Amino acid sequence: MMISGTKTAHSPQLDTVLMVESFIQEHSGEYKKRALWENLPRKMMYQTFSTIIGYLTDSGKIAADKEGKICWIYNPELIKRLLDNSDLKIR
User: Could you name the domain of life of the organism this protein comes from (predicted)?
Assistant: First the structure.
C-alpha cells in the first residue's frame, strides 16, 4: 500500500504471532529460521514470519544458538523467582 510515496509496513495479526510462539515453544532448538518457517502449521509470507521473529528476538523470548537454531528462552517463573530473591540486587 502506498500513501504519498511511502510504504507502510504490514503488521502480523495476533493469532499469527501466537501460533509462531507456540510452535517455537514446542520445537525449541529443532529448526533453523527457514526450516522453522517451512514447518509452521499455517503458511505465511516469509516477510511476515521475519517480522515476527524480529519481534520475538527483541522482546527476549527467543534466541538463535551457534548453529542458527531458534530456541525459546523466555521463562517468566524464573524471572519472578530471581526478582523475589533478596540476595540479588539490580544495578
Answer: Archaea
